[in-house]
Amino acid sequence: MSTTSRRHVDPSSRQLSLTDPGAFVVGCNYWASHAGTAMWSDWRPDVVARDLRDLAGAGLQVLRVFPLWPDFQPIHNLGTAWNPSLETRHGENPLPDDAWGRAGLSKEMMDRFSGFLDLADKNGLRCVVGLITGWMSGRLFLPPALAGRNPLTDPLAIQWQLRFVREFVRAFRGRPAVLAWDLGNECNCMGQASREQAFAWTGTITAAIRAEDNTRPVVSGLHGLTPTGSWTMQDQGELTDVLTTHPYPAFTPHGGADPVNTIRGILHSTAESRFYADIGGKPCFCEEIGTLGRYYASEAVAADYMRACLFSLWANDCHGALWWCAFDQDHLDHAPYDWCTVERELGMFGAGRRRKPVLKTFGAFRRFLDGLPFRRLPPRTREAVCVLTRDQDHWGVAYSSFILAKQAGFDLEFRFAEQPLPGAAVFLLPNVKGMQVLFRRRWLELLEKVKAGATLYLSLDDGMPSGFEELTGLRPTTREARGGGGVARLDGIPGEPEIACAGGFKLNLEPVGATVLAREADGNPLLTVHPRGKGRVFFLGVPLEMNLTNAAGAFHGERATSAWRLYAHVAARAMKERAVHKDSPLLAVTEHRVSARDRVVVALNQSPAILATRLELRRGWALASVLHGTAAAAGGDLSLQLPPCDAAVLRLVRA
Predict the structure, then answer these.
(1) What are the tens digits of pLDDT across the range 521-539?
(2) Were 475 and a residue from 37, 382, 510, 647 both cysteine, which residue would form a disulfide, CB within 3.0 to 4.6 Å?
(3) What pLDDT digit, counting tens, does each position of 427-472 carry?
(4) What is the C-alpha separation between 48 and 12, in angstroms, rounded?
(5) What sign has the CA pseudo-torsion 169, 170, 173, 177?
(6) What is the DSSP letter of 414?
(7) What one-character DSSP code corresponds to residue 577?
(8) How many CB atoms lie within 10 A of CB 574?
(9) Exposure pattern of 124-159 as b/e (b: 16+ CB <10 Å)?
(10) According to the 3-state scheme, what is the secondary structure of 476-503?
């Protein structure tokens, strides 16, 4: 069967949302084409109007916009040697005796922003408004009265931010063009803060927004979150409504090892967004994404890469993607563009308003969404929970675990060591490291789930889990530093994958009930399985996931490993409930249950080459329609030939 006719949903009926399950928006971050960050001080409404017409005409829905802090709150301190802050003014002019004046806001700038929202509404565009824009593209932008102060911790700076936020939101809360309020652009870059200070700042700004407008979501706007440290996804999830990722290959650890249009590059934005959403407990969308210009990817490659990212984010319950940014800024000579070469050629439009291929990719994806016979994609089926433990590189471990699961053909969600565990058929405990693995109560919770029938996989990175012998059926005899390690074949696994026996330390082990599936060159057990109640425990004696994270080309090309076959073996029982099964590690497949007899399947080619492959249909399932791409019946299975970085979207029914 090839493409078939389908019922269309009126695009006007698709209410834009960043929080509704299955919602997905496409758009970009916006600075005016003529001025970049100087757009408000060099306000040209005719240029802005043309910009917005061009963006809307290309199919974009959402813009993230930035009222630059010192332009909108241009406060100066005037004083004496004895009292340097005797009075706060707009330059030499006293603050007006009205609400905006008392908040230090410029009426001229507020009127300009009002005009901007009118233009956005006229073009059917909705805006995520970054309120505290004090950091942008590598430059700090502070009102003169706050120069030298830490905006995140200084009481005077927070006082003026509260005034700004309260009056700004109050002024524009009735405007239909406002989709959401964003705390600001990467505000965690404005200064140093402890975890408690970061929580207090976020909570203060969020409360001020909600006090004036409780009808729109509050978006975090931050990047670089971790499960520990100052800025955590748990705290942001507690305080805000929507989490955000900015997954650039150069600025995210482990993000730039492989070409962007290969599997690791394609899955970066999805893996990081799920990492944030699952641990933070709130919806997440890719608020900034890009290739950082032609240095990392040609324009054609960037378009292919983005097509794959859009399908992947959409299929994995993320809520949208905004490109950085609308227009090239290589003609600008003010900072940050004068300082930083990477900030100059990042637009969807080049010089002379030339439309780059990536703009066409966004427009095509928007048309695809508008043509679907349903308003929202149901959540993807998930078979596994990946538990990230203390003392490890959380993102590095999460990244490779996510990729391996995709290669193996199942989907996972993340939890952190302290968090309650949901039910699942499979639990992954990768790269266990250090002495603080899990709280005792969480460890016991996990063991009860295994006893009840779940499968547990544990890979070791010199960690010390409780009850090791009882859990694994292995008795440690000695511990020693590893040398080179070499390569071992997992001959007890279908396909007999080879993995590197690298890592900091090695446990020498004696089986006391475990079945040995593979050994190291010296005979030491490497991979084992052991019954635990109704469940099973797989043990791997090397830190597979971080070994792969640290190895360039580990997932594609000539150096690619077949380590994913281990994940496929661990999750084989859980995957039996899937309607389709695949055998190519470059194909990602998500299943979405519309009903007991109706599923949507998204099959994505995560490579820069044409992928000819097959999907095995489980007995009783049949292809009803093709919503994107092509598929052909082949002896009860489905034959796919996917273009580079493209997908097939299929509707299956059960007889």
Answers:
(1) 999 999 999 999 999 999 9
(2) 510
(3) 999 999 998 888 899 999 999 999 999 999 999 999 988 899 999 9
(4) 25
(5) negative
(6) E
(7) G
(8) 18
(9) ebbbbbbbbbbbbbebebbbebbeebebbbeeebbe
(10) EEEEEECCCCCEEECCCCCCCCEEECCC
